Each structure stands twice: as structure tokens, then as C-alpha cells.
Protein: Cell wall-associated NlpC family hydrolase
Organism: Agromyces terreus
Amino acid sequence: MARFTPRRPNAQLKRNTKKAVARKSRDRAVTPSVDTAAAKPLASTRPLRRGAVANVAVMTLAVGIVGTLAIPAYAFAPGSNLPQFGTSAETELTKAQAQSVEVADDVIAAPVTKDGFEAVTAAEIEAAAEAKRQAEAAEAARVAAEAEMASYAASYDGPSAGDFLANPAYPSYDLGSVYNVATQYIGTPYVYGGATPAGFDCSGFVMYVFAQFGIGMPHSSAGQGAMGTRISEADAQPGDLVIMDGHDGFYAGNGMILHAPYEGASVRVQPIWTSDYYIVRIGI
């Protein structure tokens, strides 16, 4: 068996090793030592490191908050696997079944009321406004008529109906004479409440004419109609009375009427414009 003899390093290998060691020593001598301050990381890199640390802290805090928010779920509604939480009376109520309540019959039968609502149309609003305008116009006309009446009364100084009743101008009475006296006042203006030739309303005109024959009448168309006897239109003669609802005048023959019509008009003869009337004769 051959004997192993270790080989010695040759002279060239030794020389190379010595040169490498010498070169390394020279490099250390030439290269200045690194200052401790220079070894520290640059200032620009410090915020990055601090930011990373801050991010870790925020993530840790967020995980803690999420874990905390999950805790009340067990406090309010503990599960069966958490025996450390006791069941409250409120929790037991949430698990209760549907309950039945008995109500007395008088309560069940109690009437129920509710508010009603009706929409108003534009036409209804306009109609209401028109009715208001008409009412205001009528009131204005009434006030004007009263003022006109006061003016006419102040301007008239002749005999009144009362004067004629005390001393009748025509002691004898007949229908023809009544109608003839009535025609003398054609053209006299209508005045609300008027009963003299200064101005007449419908019943004031009839009252003033009959007063001249010594016949007293109320200042009312309904009252005057009640004084006479109702006759047929076929028997009517000029001088009889035409009675309507709220209005009257003298029958003028041939379906005509002599009357004081309305505010703004004068005593005149015209056709009877309605069938809703009847004839009354005074003195029989």
C-alpha cells in the first residue's frame, strides 16, 4: 500500500498570498476611516423609517378598535357558548312568543272619525269671488239709494200719502180713475223706499196712488196683495194689481204692467216678463 505524503505549498503560492496581504494592508492605510456620523442614515431617509413605524402603529390601533366594537354584540345578545354572560329580562322578552290581548266590545265598536278634505276648483273660487262682488255691488247700490232717497225727500214739498188719506183728492173710487191717476207719474225715477213724486219704489208708487182715493195701504207688495181679492187674468182690468214675489204694479191691460221697476229706471209700462204672478182687485 502506497504511503500518503502531504504536498507542500510551492513557493509561488506563498508569494501570491504575501502580496495579497500586503495589498490589503495598503488599501486600509489609504482609505480614511468612516466617521460615526457619516455612518448614520441620511436625513431624507429618516421620515421614511418613521412613516413605516407610524403605519405599523395605526394598523395595530385599528385592529384593536375592530376588536373592541365586536365586544357589545356579546354583551347585548350573549350566545349559549358564553356562560359568563347572564340572560337579562329584556333578552327573555325578545324571545317571547306572540301575545293575545282582549279588548272590550264597546272599545271595538267605538266610532272612528277622520278629517275630511275637499279640493276647491278654480271655477268654485271664481264663483265665490263673483258672488262677493255682487254682494258688494248690491250693498253699494242700497247705500246709494238711501242717499238718493234722502236727497229726493228733501227736494219734495208736496202732499204725502198721509196727507191724501186725511183729505182724499178723489172721494169716489173706480178702477179706471185709479189707472189714470197712476199714469200721471210715468217717468218718475225709481228710488228705494220712495213714496212721493220725488221718487217711487214699486209699493210706494201703488200706496201713493191709492192714498189719493182715501185707501190706506202698507208700504209692502205682499201686504198690498193681501188687501184685495184674487181674480183671474181674464177678468183683470187696468187699475187692478199685478202681484209678484217681492214686486207689484198696476195692470195695464193686454198682459202689460205699469210699475216702478228698479234702481236706475223710471215709472213705465212694459210687458209682464214672467208667468209667476197673480191679479188682485182692491175694493171688492
Q: What stands out?
A: Strands lie at 195-196, 199-200, 229-231, 241-244, 247-253, 256-259, 268-271, 278-281. The CA atoms of residues 183 and 258 lie 8 Å apart. Confidence is low (pLDDT under 50) at residues 33-39, 41-45, 73-77. The longest strand covers residues 247-253.
